[in-house]
Amino acid sequence: MTGIDLHAHTVYSDGTYPPRRTISLARERRLDTVAITDHDTTGGLDEALAAGGELGVQVVPGVEFSTLYRDEGVHILCYFMDASDPDFAAELQRLRADRFSRGELMVRKLQELGYPISFERVREIAEGGNIVRPHVAQALVEAGVVPTLKDAFTEELIGSNGRAYVEKHALHPLDALALIHQAGGVCVLAHPGTWRETSPAPRELLDELAGAGLDGIEASHPEHTPEVEADYIRTAQRLGLFWTGSSDCHGERYDPVRLGMRTTPVEQYERLKTRAAELRLARARAEPV
User: Fold this and answer.
1) Would residue 159 count as lying in a domain?
2) Rounded to whole angstroms, how far apart are CA atoms 262 and 7?
3) Most buried among 23, 120, 229, 230, using CB within 10 Å?
4) H helices of the chain, where?
């Protein structure tokens, strides 16, 4: 077992598997390391860590932060952070509260447009976890409005700038980077080739983040072509960063289930762990005795 997958979601955000099932699947697929990176929550980490201990899978604690750049979402992955850091925990709480009210507003807009869905059903689909757009999309599928989740992400419905779209609260990526480092976490730019859902993140954003201390780039991702992956590996090398490979698994939300479809080379993971140790040491030295 040598596989390292550093991006997976559970029912605590928009995945379809509980944390224990995700870790069990990692073992089945001969992964020895998997990161749980739910959107804006650490709620599933305790269950995942316990399962990892039982099944012999190293679980990397993580979060996928929502940020905004030029009014478009940018996702930032965080690893090995101190989730009890007060500012870090407060920002996650703000993000979770915003996702709840955002979900309510999107459903209200859809109802005003004549679509027969309810917020109660969206909450049931979320199973107590963060409410995210795929939960609203699932309600639209169940109501017969669209045939698939993907079909809900349009200008008519809940795609970016769609008629029922509602913007979310989020930090600027540079502010998220500072917050993550403050909490002793390693910071990686997630799937930069899918900014604005289809177009790549602006190069100036990568340069700004690198100048502010970005640690790595998620270069290998199921939605990156081989050419895009190679380009981001070169970009990471140019900027002096490590790079990761990850499945961004959401359980059965995608077909096939992605876990292990992309993995991180051992040498890149070792660089990530070394950076995590450096950040922990710097944080410890900065704290008052």
Assistant:
1) no
2) 10
3) 23
4) 19-28, 45-55, 86-112, 119-126, 133-142, 173-182, 203-211, 226-239, 266-286
Residue 224 makes CB contacts below 8 A (sequence gap 6+) with 191, 193, 194, 232
Cα-flanking dihedrals φ and ψ of residue 266, to 5°? -55, -40
Q: What is the pLDDT of residue 14?
A: 86
Rounded Cα distance between 7 and 151, Å, is 24
| Residue 81 domain-assigned (yes or no) | yes
DSSP letters spanning 133-176: HHHHHHHHHHTTS-SSSGGGSSTTTTSTT-TT------B-HHHH
Q: Is residue 9 part of a domain?
A: yes
pLDDT at position 177: 97
Peptide bond into 256 cis (omega under 30): yes
Taking the C-alpha atoms of residue 34 and residue 56, their distance in angstroms, rounded to an integer, is 11
pTM of the model: 0.85
- Give the pLDDT of residue 1: 53
The partner residues of 243 in beta bridges, in order of sequence, read: 217
CA separation (Å) from 279 to 19, 42, 63, 80, 284?
A: 27, 20, 17, 10, 9
Report mean pLDDT in 10-residue bins for the chain, 289 residues: 90 92 96 96 96 98 92 92 95 87 93 94 85 90 93 91 85 95 97 81 93 98 96 96 97 84 97 96 76
**Bridge pairing between strands 242-245 and 3-8:** unpaired
Alpha carbon distances (Å) from 23 to 83, 93, 203: 20, 25, 35
100 located within any domain: no
Tokens of 224: 């990156």
Q: Which domain, by its residues, includes 239?
A: 3-92+169-286
